[in-house]
Amino acid sequence: MKKIATKPKLFDAGGDLLKDWYVYYSFVNSFTGKLERHRRLKGLSKKKKEVVDLMSEQDIEQERQRRYEVSIRLIEKIEKDLLNGYNPNKTSGDIYTDEIKPLKRVAGSKTIEYYLREVEQHLTTGRRENTVKNYRIYLNNFLKWLRINQMHLLPISAIEHGHAERFLSLITVGGLKSNKWRNEHLFYMNRCFKQLMRLYPNLLLINPFGLSEKVKHVRKKAALYRPDMRQRIKDLLPKYDQQLWLFVQFIYYTGLRPGIELRSLQVNMIHLNESILILPAHLAKDGELRVVTIPQQLEEQLRAMNLDKVPGEYFLFSTAKKPGPEIAGKNYFMKGWRKFREAHNIPDDFKIYSWKHTGATAADDAGIDRRYIQGHLGHNTLQQTEEYLDSNKVKGSEEIRSKYPTL
After folding, report:
1. Domain limits at 65?
2. What sign has the CA pseudo-torsion 375, 378, 383, 387?
3. Does residue 277 share a domain with residue 386?
4. pTM of this prediction?
5. Long-range contacts of 21-29 (CB under 8 A, 24+ apart)
6. Is 233 left (phi over 0), alpha (psi -120 to 50) or beta?
7. Number of domains comprising the chain
8. Domain identity same for 58 and 134
9. Last residue of one domain, picked from the residues 50, 74, 99
10. Residue 339: is its pLDDT beyond 90?
11. Is residue 328 part of a domain?
12. Is residue 61 part of a domain?
């Protein structure tokens, strides 16, 4: 069958706002039998130089993103019109739907599922078990949605921002899942498509999840250990379990997560001469090597342990209650902390992970620059750190307390 139409595409002039952007496609001329170019500029026309000169970099980027969104809607409309029988070369008379060839998947082309599975392989190789599990959960949910909507066999270029938004909206439909659940899908799918665009730079025009935004959700405040409670635990825990006390201090001082990151810490990862520990990429949550500064209070205790005389491959926290060859089990320290907490009537809200929140908040209260705290916690952005710290704030204002005017 002779091709009579091509798929609409966007020309974005390399992002230049001084030039026209437009959506273009070709349609066969019934008299000449040749494909003729058509283009639409609505909402995509060039701006005058004096206007662009007055725009900030943020304004320019926002205008570019707006144009991409306009182009997505325009492409969808053109495709729908063509499939419904629209002929741009006719100005009057009947339109015959059999003149339109539906835009179908090209035989032998790679499907959406093929590319996303390849991306999954790249993003999960050598990563922590929980990270692999998360990628698979969110990616499988998206692929399930594609299959339900009979889109899983389409080429990857068929997925657009509108599809991403419909999928994310469905995630929280009926209030069955929280906005946090939606945001987690957005985070992981955004990463998947970013990786896809790195592997295949010419495959997609834009990341379909890149234009979506997080929605607000109620973040449960972490139970922070107040100074009086911290002092009580400092008095009790070393006598109860010395290794558990060191484990707690590591969480507080280094911000390492008590799961795979801290349990897997080996002696050769600790470099006391430089006052740092180096966490390999396969242990870190984000899959990148982390260099963590060791505060001097913790460094002094580590020096007293004479770690230079301990085999480097030994785990700092082992089942032997001291550095040893056997790593402690997944729930070993969680159970130990729970038993200590119950034995001393410490409320259930105070988890072992709460020491990480407590340490970070104490560092912020001490006036440490939040940019340093960002690196110390391994956060990707300063905004992430600020949201993390502000969500844990439970203190009142000293200005209000001491300077409020008398009635």
Report:
1. 9-99
2. negative
3. yes
4. 0.54
5. 21/45, 21/46, 21/67, 21/71, 23/71, 23/74, 23/75, 23/78, 25/78, 25/82, 27/82, 27/87, 27/88, 27/89, 28/2, 28/3, 28/4, 28/89, 29/89
6. alpha
7. 3
8. no
9. 99
10. yes
11. yes
12. yes
| Position 205 in a domain | no
Beta-bridged to residue 40, according to DSSP, are 23
Do 262 and 363 lie in one domain? The reply is yes
Average pLDDT of the chain, as a whole number: 82
pLDDT value of residue 47 = 86
Q: What one-character DSSP code corresponds to residue 14?
A: G
d(CA 86, CA 398): 69
- Give the domain CATH number at 176: 1.10.150
From 64, 99, 134, give the residue that closes a domain.
99
If you write DSSP's letter for every residue of 15-40 in order, what string do you get?
G-TTS--EEEEEEE-TTT-SEEEEEE
Phi and psi, residue 153, nearest 5°: -95, 0
Whether 73 contacts 162, CB under 8 Å: yes
What is the Cα 278 distance to its own chain's centre?
Answer: 23
DSSP structure string for 88-127: TT-SSS---GGG-----PPTTPPBHHHHHHHHHHHHHTT-
Q: Which of 46, 36, 35 is nearest to 11 (CA)?
A: 46
Which amino acid is it at 112? I
Query: pLDDT digit string (tens) for 250-281?
Result: 999 998 888 888 988 999 999 999 999 998 88
Together in a domain, 283 and 349: yes
Q: 324 is written with which tokens? A: 């040893």
CA distance 90 to 77: 18
What is residue 310's DSSP assignment?
Answer: S
Among candidate residues 166, 142, 146, 165, the one with its CA nearest the CA of residue 155: 146
Do both 136 and 60 map to the same domain?
no
Q: Number of helices (H) and strands (E), helices first, in the chain?
A: 15, 6
Are 68 and 136 within one domain?
A: no
The pLDDT of residue 209 is 92
Q: Quick check: 244 pLDDT over 80?
A: yes
Q: What is the pLDDT of residues 55-84, one digit of tens each?
A: 888 888 888 888 888 888 888 888 888 776
Residues 134 and 193 in one domain: yes
